[in-house]
């Protein structure tokens, strides 16, 4: 039997191997098997084969000593230090709750995951604040509260989030303590406890050797042991390389970080196992990405997909003193710079897939990515975001791990010019996402983005051919985004949710049919052209609809014209085999559309300028609908309680036709 744990601390729990039953089906429905693996690059595996890992067996991870981190905290502005101490003082008597069994059952009973997750996130946030304050002050004032918090977290029956319990033996509901599984929640909990142990193990030892032993024991039992003996966690991607998402680098990073922070409490043999296995697993994530580096899951997931991969690679590079590095690999750089093009203006990002229109990207993580790949534009973007996100006043936002790195890099970020490099166009030919601007200044002119792809992407919406259009830095024609997650979001009823349906994206209903879900429903004949005067993106969307739509082809072309009065032209050419039902055009708008006259709709008026939508009145009848927003996530994202939908109903009922729609600044 492998010895995982250097300090003797026996367990009476059984480590029964989990099996995946029908209960996990709902979680995987969204992530169904597709033949979409890209290149078998195996960049990390190639390093393993050079026996580099063998030379690291006895190396211990010591990012910095407590005194060193204390000095970094002391270098923060006085008001930031004061805030760290005052926040911790307020929560010194925090009553660490036991997470009720019904909080876990809520997910199974009603689909509610947020109640349980609030217990989980509140606890980790309190522990983070206490750790930072005690390292800063160093007088022991917060130590008992840290002990109480660490002990309370260790006492929890599981660190796994309720929404992820379907993968345990027995399925969703009450946690199965005999089947420890690793999910995002367990990983984040482990890394927070591991940092706590790293800074305070000597203090714990002085209080009680049992206290010092507790955190390493729990991390070993719940994280390291299952990780090393199993290869069937779906996110490892050892069983299926055809779908890999952000869980892969996120979980692998937290497992590796926790293992390394425990130092001598983990044997060299097990440490090597974790390093090697994590490298083999993260290779699957890198292999899955297309060469263009675009995040299929959308920019909302970049921080915990490509950026989490960077954090993992950064950790490997630091630990190995540069022997394990992919800093020069083009795919790694492309995955980083994607976030630059996904940023529209201020806190707006292209929000395809399960992304919200407003995002708060971690400035320190963006800066670290720039450091890792030695990309000046990314480092400067990190500094730009730091100003935008009030990073300098609140550098400890996020997890304890993120906060520690933010504090460490605070002076470097502050010394870097805050510049956002703005490209006039971009084209991700593998992911089929295109876009561009009419003006170098993000607050002027139009910004446009559109997508092809297929209707089984990670965090998929049925949205082949959709687009967004911004005017003077704010959304004009929009992608609604995603509501608060529930069991329905990742289950067989996902496409009953209105925001997932093609009728609530800027795409047509063809012959009475909406787009269908599945890997075979995809764009074809995708093309992109760009010149100084215009950008053009075209595709055939017919393949995104079921056969019953009887559509031979439906070619859509977007042309963004960079003129003194910029405009977007949408041209549709189609051929139907037979008439079955109405064809409609849908456009989601952020402001109330006003019908000026037949064929002309005013979308926006500001500062003497109006943005009008022109359509052939001889072909279309028009209907304008209000779309009330009641979901908390949508309300927070949009900061308004309604959007609108323009519906153009084709009254000609022709089997073959072509027409143009035009959106222009007047």
TrEMBL record:
Residues 456-576 form the Heparinase II/III-like C-terminal domain. The chain crosses the membrane at residues 20-37. It is found in: Cell envelope. Gene3D superfamilies: 2.70.98.70, Chondroitin AC/alginate lyase (1.50.10.100). It comes from the Bacteria. The keyword Transmembrane applies. Its main location: other. InterPro entries: Chondroitin_lyas, Hepar_II_III_C. The keyword Membrane applies. GO terms for molecular function: lyase activity. Keywords: Membrane, Transmembrane, Transmembrane helix. GO terms for cellular component: cell envelope. Pfam families: Hepar_II_III_C. This is Heparinase. It comes from Flavobacterium rhamnosiphilum.
